[in-house]
Design brief:
Blueprint lengths: L5 E7 L4 H5 L1 H11 L3 E7 L11 H14 L19 H9 L9 H11 L8 H12 L3 H8 L2 H16 L7 E5 L5 E5 L4 H25 L5
Parallel strand pairs: 1-2
Antiparallel strand pairs: 1-3, 3-4
Helix pairs in contact: 2-9, 4-6, 4-7, 4-8, 5-6, 6-7
Length: about 220
Amino acid sequence: MEPMRLLMTNYLDVISSWCFWAVPAWRKLQERYGERVDFRWKIALMDKSGLPPTREAMDWYYRRSGMLMRSPVRLRSDWPEFDREEYPEPNCVAEAAREFGVEDDRVWLALSRAELLDGKKISEWQVAAEIAAQAAGLDQTKLLERAKSPEIEARIRLTTQEFHDLQVTQRPTFVIDSPIGDRAIFSGFARFAPLSATLDAMIEDLVGYEAHAAHFGEPPS
C-alpha cells in the first residue's frame, strides 16, 4: 500500500515581503518532507488594506521585517505605485506559467526577487513577463498573452476568495491537509520550526493509521 501523503498549500502574493521572507522555510520543508508531503502554491491577492500608503511607510515595514528575520540585506522600496489597489499583473504572469507546465516555484520566486532585491517594477506586464520567461525558459510573447487572458485573472480571483474563506488576513498562509480529515492553518508564519513540528505530528498520525490498516484492514460494514 502506498503511504498516505499530506498536502501543504502556500497562499501567497508575488509582491509580498513576508512571502519572500518565508522562502527559506518553505524550501527546507520541501527538502525534508518531500517523501510524505505534496507542496503547492496558490495566489492570494493583497488588497489596499495590506499595502503601505507611502514609500516612507514601506521602508519602515521593510526595515522591521528585515530585523525580525535577521536579514543581511535590505529590501527595495522603489518598485511600488502607491495609488494602486492591488498588483494582479505579476501574479497573473506567475499563474500563467502553469499553462506551460511550470508548477514549481521558479517563476514567482524570480518575480519576487526581482522586485524586492533589484527594485524592478514587476507591476508592468512586459517586465514581469520577461523575468518569468527567463526564469522558466518560456516564450515571453506566449506567456504574456496567456497572462492577460480573462481565464487567468478569474483563476487568481478564485484562489484569492479561497484564501478569504479561510478567515485569515496574512500572506503567506500555509494550509496543511491530511487524508484523514485533519487541517492545520498558519497565517503569517515565516519560520521553519512550527511548520515542521506540525508536519511531524500529522505524519505520525498517518503512520499510525497505516499500521492499523496493515493489522486490521478496512473497518467492518
